[in-house]
Amino acid sequence: MTAADNTHFEGIIGLFTTPEELFLIYPSGTWPFDKAQLEKLARERSDFTVVLDNGRVIGFANLYTSIAGDRYFIGNLVISDAYRGQGIGRRLIRHMCDRIFERYASTVYISVFTDNTPALLLYASLGFMPFDIERRTTPKDDSAALLHMRLDARSW
Predict the structure, then answer these.
(1) Exposure winner among 2, 13, 54, 65, fewest CB in 10 A?
(2) 107 to each of 23, 49, 97, how far by Cα in Å?
């Protein structure tokens, strides 16, 4: 896990391969995802983190807070298609949780769309528990369910 900087931006952008994937990972983003959107995201969020393989960006995540600033969320977690299923996402989530627990708060929050089964199962296996659900609208004007989950440091 490495702190991301501007030299990683093209690699991060390349992780988003379809409009549907972009919606699942960054619902307020627009397709095609580009450097301007990522730069805006960098101004709004913190702890941009990448996973590298021989200098190539293969994973990305960041942190953000709720509007009130009282909840810390892991956001925009994405792993390159070619590297999924190898435990990289699990390690990245663990890293981001440790960062929150060490520096910011005793509870980590994460949100996931209910049709993103691999992510739901991963988060549940790490101890995240659902606590709320929110209706969202997809780019195709369909309804989607966004599940909010949390993990307390006591159970980490």
Answers:
(1) 54
(2) 25, 19, 9
